[in-house]
């Protein structure tokens, strides 16, 4: 009888379910986009019920598509968009839309927290910076602005969770209110030294501890999904999408790093069991170890990556398919256009919530190919910003960058990435590293795989060597830095 691992990959723009066999091969995949809600400029929301319904739908679809019986599924692993904040009642009803990680409505409140001299405490204890990106100020906003919410929270009648917690709650029919260390470390409320919710920050933001989920290892039992009266499937692996991708890329050794090109762009480097505090604008976050323990990673978060390609496609309608940009970039003859996609401010290493997007260097003969090329290159430039900070903080010179995510399929982008970084870019045969990481965690906990087997299963894809000369690299990057300076502080 064939056995499988089911991975749920709940992302910012779509929910996916992927079925892996016990050799780690992708058997079937189902995906469904869901509504992006923009109530006001800078606000980004999702309907929590639509997140769940889309995730449940693709989960059922992929099982039906592969003609697999529920008894053949050994375990479920979950990866999820991080920081996105959901609050729901004891009956499983959301009391407000999910406030998405990209949302900047709490920027003014973040300024107030900084004025209270909380920055150093936040950095030293959570590994993060004070920013609207993280869950803490989103929770505070809901408690302050949704009528009756604070009173209900203080009575213990509400639950907060990042998307993993919401999915676990729904999958277990309300039996489990849990999260894992990687997701907890993205809330700006979790002490990454003590591995517990930080009482001082909860008090500073006036957030009742009773609404927070129980925190446990990324590979452990979270509860059971019961598809029918006869079957129950254990949920054995949970990790935030970027830590899941780091695990899926088998970055188990100190100094190994990956970059995921999704809606945003996220680069993580394993820095080992000793926490490294960044002095160059990066985050320190928790990553999962294969043995079920934790270690630390440095992370650079780029808010807008694939979302910039979506903007060209949907907002400007320059092409029909994101894949078209590869040929468009190759056809472009422009070398001077720079796109800075700071639609939601700038993330690492700048952390400027007042920055906004801009296009520089346009001339009368600029065309859609030039915009496509410059937008692709902006993903690589932002990654270089992050890598320079990462090498400075860690003292490690990166020799190879592992890549994954949708935009990693673009050969033009990957070659430019290798050229601008001056390092080898390694793209695996299967780009589904996020879902793969969730599956790997669940499979390890189920006793299906060993760590050595995971490394063996990671099939080699395509390698991009460096072709650009030093002078061109320096000239292009100098132009990018000039453009960055001109977008910063745009909103007064």
Essential attributes:
alpha+beta, Nucleotidyltransferase, domain 5, six-stranded mixed beta sheet, seven-stranded mixed beta sheet, 492 residues
CATH hierarchy: architecture of the largest domain: 2-Layer Sandwich
Going across the major beta sheet, what is the strand order? 17-18-16-15-21-22-23
Largest sheet: 7 strands, mixed
The total of beta strands comes to 23
- Quote the CATH topology of the largest domain: Nucleotidyltransferase, domain 5
Number of helical stretches of at least 4 residues: 16
Low-confidence stretches: none
Number of domains: 2
**Helical coverage, percent range:** 25-40%
Shape: globular
Strand content: 15-25%
CATH superfamily grouping of the largest domain: ATPase, nucleotide binding domain
Average pLDDT score: 93
> Over the alpha carbons, how many angstroms does the gyration radius reach?
22 Å
Query: Termini separation (Å)?
Result: 63 Å
Please write the CATH class name of the largest domain.
Answer: Alpha Beta
* Overall SS class: alpha+beta
């Amino acid at each position: 009888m064939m056995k499988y691992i089911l991975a749920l990959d709940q992302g910012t723009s779509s929910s996916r379910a992927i079925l892996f066999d016990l050799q780690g091969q992708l058997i079937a995949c189902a995906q469904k986009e869901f509504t992006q809600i923009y109530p006001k400029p800078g606000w980004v929301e999702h309907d929590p019920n639509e997140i769940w319904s889309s995730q449940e739908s693709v989960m059922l679809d992929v099982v039906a598509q592969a003609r697999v019986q529920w008894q053949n599924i050994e375990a479920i692993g979950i990866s999820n968009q991080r920081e996105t904040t959901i609050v729901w009642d004891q009956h499983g009803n959301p009391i407000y839309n999910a406030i998405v990680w990209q949302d900047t409505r709490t920027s003014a409140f973040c300024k107030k927290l900084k004025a209270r001299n909380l920055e150093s405490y936040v950095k030293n204890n959570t590994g993060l910076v004070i920013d609207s990106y993280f869950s803490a100020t989103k929770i505070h906003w809901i408690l302050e602005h949704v009528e009756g919410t604070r009173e209900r929270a203080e009575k213990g009648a509400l639950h907060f969770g990042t998307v993993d917690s919401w999915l676990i709650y729904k999958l277990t029919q309300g039996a489990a209110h849990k999260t894992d260390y990687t997701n907890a470390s993205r809330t700006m409320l979790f002490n990454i030294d003590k591995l517990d919710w930080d009482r001082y920050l909860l008090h500073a933001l006036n957030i009742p501890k009773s609404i927070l989920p129980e925190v446990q290892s990324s590979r452990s039992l979270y509860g059971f999904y019961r598809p029918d009266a006869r079957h129950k499937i254990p949920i054995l692996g949970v990790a935030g999408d970027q830590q899941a991708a780091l695990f899926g890329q088998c970055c188990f050794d100190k100094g190994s790093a990956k970059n995921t090109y999704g809606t945003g762009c996220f680069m993580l480097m394993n820095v080992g069991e000793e926490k490294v505090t960044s002095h160059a604008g990066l985050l320190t976050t928790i990553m999962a170890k294969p043995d079920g323990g934790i270690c630390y990673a440095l992370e650079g978060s780029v808010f807008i990556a694939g979302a910039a390609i979506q903007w060209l496609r949907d907002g400007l309608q320059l092409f029909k398919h994101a894949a078209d940009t590869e040929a468009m970039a190759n056809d472009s003859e422009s070398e001077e256009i720079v796109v800075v996609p700071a639609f939601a401010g700038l993330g690492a290493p700048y952390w400027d919530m007042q920055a906004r997007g801009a296009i520089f260097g346009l001339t009368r003969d600029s065309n859609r190919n030039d915009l496509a090329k410059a937008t692709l290159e902006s993903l690589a430039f932002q990654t270089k910003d992050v890598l320079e900070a990462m090498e400075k903080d860690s003292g490690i010179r990166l020799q190879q960058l592992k890549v994954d995510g949708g935009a990693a399929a673009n050969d033009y982008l990957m070659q430019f990435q290798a050229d601008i970084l001056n390092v080898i870019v390694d793209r695996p045969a299967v780009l589904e590293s996020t879902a793969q990481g969730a599956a790997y965690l669940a499979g390890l906990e189920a006793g299906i795989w060993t760590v050595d087997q995971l490394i063996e299963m990671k099939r080699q894809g395509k390698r991009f060597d460096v072709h650009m000369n030093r002078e061109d690299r320096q000239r292009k990057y100098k132009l990018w830095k000039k453009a960055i300076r001109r977008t910063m502080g745009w909103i007064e």
